[in-house]
Amino acid sequence: MSTIWKHAKGGDWRPCINKFSGGLPESNGYIYVEANGGLNQQRTSICNAVAVAGYLNATLVIPNFHFHSIWRDPSKFSDIYDEEFFVKTLENDVRIVDSVPGYLMERFDYNLTNVFNFRIKAWAPIQYYKDTVLPRLLEEKFIRISPFANRLSFDAPPEVQRLRCLANYEALRFSNPLLTMGETLVSRMKEKSAKHGGKYISVHLRFEEDMVAFSCCVYDGGSKEREDMIAARERGWKGKFTKPGRVLRPGANRVNGKCPLTPLEVGLMLRGMGFDNDTSIFLASGRIYDSERHMAPLLEMFPLLQTKEMLASPEELAPFKNYSSRMAAIDYTVCLHSEVFVTTQGGNFPHFLLGHRRYLFNGHSKTIRPDKRKLAVYFDNLKIGWKTFKRHMLSMRAHSDSKGIELKRPNDSIYSFPCPNCMCHTNKTEDSKTTSTA
């Protein structure tokens, strides 16, 4: 595997997030946010809440995790993250408490629904918070913001970005049970990858039933698949796909690269890119749709493939098994430390992993992000030969390789592109490092 990737692990960047050492001015009041969505959408909300609270000189109440009907995970902040470490890391930058003082709650009859709630539009600029939220905060001393997913623009002043960097890359650490389990599986993957010096690749495969159903794509086209997908859509999104005038266009979805890759397609792509059958793979995924049938060809191509369920005993996974966010956190840790990360469907999981891996590996992330529009053309071309297909795959891998180091551009997320807001180029002088993160 060492010869398959052109760039060495790491680049010419290093973390350089400044932390304040002085005291904080008197707080302007308390902010309570409700983080909705899955593990990494909640992570976005947490980091953005830290940035907003710091910018408004407010005290942030540990974010509440909204119980979602799809994720069905009742986990609290401290179940997922090390709360004490989070508060300690940010103590000189943002005040964080686990609850609002009783004297203040008394004003609202100890009922959160009596607290003024801002419903803020998506991707609001930080200036909106200063102009609209801050005056009400000063008046009430306690406000709610719910929902809070994606309620802050990707582009913001350096101080806001610094707080986002500090929250995401330094303050948020998984809780000890999750961290221990994740690191244990990383060690086991390295043991099983001894032939390659402990190096393994991780693949984030989104081929769960709900993902396949939501995509409105067609795979084998059989009656069972059709019935399964209709039932899954109705369970998860009652009436959304059966509204009058709604037309499903699976062919157009595939051509436009919107269909989740099957395990077979992922296997063919990786073999075409030069990964042979003794490559160790960690598969991060939920329950694969029609798993026995769809996973068989991938396992045949990569017999050393592992999942967390294969690496850990049922007893070890028992504390996490019925909690989707905790299971995702374990997957996240194993993927974070892999030699190469392969993302097949986009979403918040690869969005955060891409940036986190760049932050850990000095700016360079060995991540394969296939062009699914091109893949659809290659896979659907029944006349394409293996030599031609492999040439296309090697070109696609080289393109991903060249994108390992990328600087944040306008409207890019700092959670995917930590350079230059959270990291400094090693050739810069100390003065320029300080300037770039101030």
UniProtKB/TrEMBL annotation:
State the Gene Ontology BP annotations: fucose metabolic process
Per the record, its GO cellular-component terms are: Golgi apparatus
Query: Which InterPro entries does this one have?
Result: FucosylTrfase_pln, GDP-Fuc_O-FucTrfase
Q: Per its record, what are the GO molecular function terms?
A: glycosyltransferase activity
Query: Which UniProt keywords are given for this protein, alphabetically ordered?
Result: Carbohydrate metabolism, Fucose metabolism, Glycosyltransferase, Transferase
Q: Name one Pfam family in it.
A: O-FucT
Instruction: Tell me yes or no: is Repeat among this UniProt entry's keywords.
Output: no
Identify its protein family. Belongs to the glycosyltransferase GT106 family.
The molecule here is called O-fucosyltransferase family protein
- Species this protein is from: Helianthus annuus
